[in-house]
Amino acid sequence: MRALVYHGRNDIRFEDVPEPEAGPGEAKIRVGYASICATDIEEWKYGPTYITSIPTVMGHEVAGRVADVGDGASGLAVGDRVMVDNVLVCGVCYWCQSGSQATCPNMEVAGLGRDGGLEEFMTWPADHLIKLPDSVKDEEAPLLEPATVAVHAVRRSGVQVGDSVAVLGVGTVGALTVQAFRAAGAVVYAVDVRKSSLDMATRLGADEAVDASAGDAGERLRELTDGIGPDIVVETAGAARTPLDAFDWVRRAGTVVLVGIYAAKPEADFNVIVGKELRVIGSVAAGAGDMRAAVGLAAEGKIRLGELVSDRISLDRVIPDGFERMAAESKDVFRIVVSPDA
Ligand SMILES: [Zn+2]
Ligand SMILES: [Zn+2]
Questions:
Q1: What are the angstrom distances between the C-alpha of 293 and each of 18, 109, 149, 167, 288?
Q2: Is 155:297 a contact under the CB 8 Å cutoff?
Q3: Which of 8, 78, 83, 266 has the most other CB atoms within 10 Å of its CB?
Q4: Domain containing 196 — which CATH number?
């Protein structure tokens, strides 16, 4: 069968690989859709960063149907629609045992350390497959993975009902983060420079979309928060300047959550963190229960995924119509979803 395989920086190949079979405790999945993430582009152009095994079939955002069930895999039947809970942790290290699974040093992630979903069939532990509710469509299901990243950031932030939250950067993860904080009862301001992103934030329920290209966004955020700044600023853009903006714009004794993946290494004045007594939190991947929460929020319509599907392409076009387009300077898409059937 055909698969998109990562061989190293600037070396991804669409090639033949053996069709996998379900081992003990695993299910074999016929991939429905997998989506292409900015992380995939980072790995292609600048990696390997999070990729822990080479070669690896790419695709960490993936959903499909159970095609076969291995020995000892319970709770699933052939034909079930499932989302791949893509983070596997060891369960026995210090971090797993103290509730911080996202930092397990033995973590393996689909598409980054184990074969992912940019192929026709993949196998995965049956206890890390989550049945999809009917209300989540096949083509939007892979976006439950970035939605899980958003849910994890909400949980890491310690947000309280009624808090004001600014989300910097409204790409896919940013748009999902806006919705996840709204679902947690926060007042949410979305900040971006792109009109398509600001429109998307408004459509998905941001209390205000702040256009950072049109003036001082920090000033506007202070106006919206009685002159003191947001309680929490979440950085999802991953640009050189935006983490520094987050430190500047959050209120004194506020919280900054860093979610972006940073290609550049900006120089920062750490006195702003000390002087304002900021809490700066990193948030990566997901912890126990985060994906189930994301599936539940999507089922209830509190997180909408469908608007973020910008295009659907077939697997054999994954490099020219998927990766090349996502890597373009003038990237005009949120998520491109890839199907072996399309
Ligand atoms: Zn991703
Ligand atoms: Zn562990």
A1: 34, 19, 11, 20, 10
A2: no
A3: 83
A4: 3.40.50.720
d(CA 109, CA 39): 13
Residues found in the chain = 342
Give the model confidence (pLDDT) of 38-82 as tens digits: 999 999 999 999 999 999 999 999 999 999 999 999 999 999 999
CATH code of the domain containing 14: 3.90.180.10
pLDDT in tens, 3-31: 999 999 999 999 999 999 999 999 999 99
| Domain ranges, residue 49 | 2-136+305-339
Q: Is residue 18 part of a domain?
A: yes
Same domain membership, residue 37 and residue 101: yes
User: Residue 137 half-sphere exposure, CB side, CA atoms within 13 Å?
Assistant: 9
DSSP strand pairing (255-258 vs 232-235): parallel
Is residue 336 exposed (0-12), middle (13-18) or buried (19+ Cβ within 10 Å)? buried
For the CA of 238, the nearest ligand: 1
142 alpha carbon, closest ligand: 1
User: What's the CA gap between 43 and 317, in Å, rounded?
Assistant: 19
Task: Please give the pLDDT value at position 29.
Answer: 98
CA of 149 to the centre of ligand 1 (A): 8
299 is a domain residue = no
Instruction: Give the dihedral sign, CA 231/236/237/239.
Output: positive
Residue whose C-alpha is closest to residue 66's, from 141, 148, 122, 142: 122
Report CA(97)–ligand 2 centroid distance (Å): 7
Residue 144 included in any domain? no
C-alpha 25/C-alpha 315 separation (Å) is 28
The residues with which 208 forms a beta bridge, in sequence order, are: 189
Q: Which ligand is nearest to the CA of 105?
A: 2
186 C-alpha vs ligand 2 centroid, how far in Å?
32
**Domain-embedded: residue 292:** no
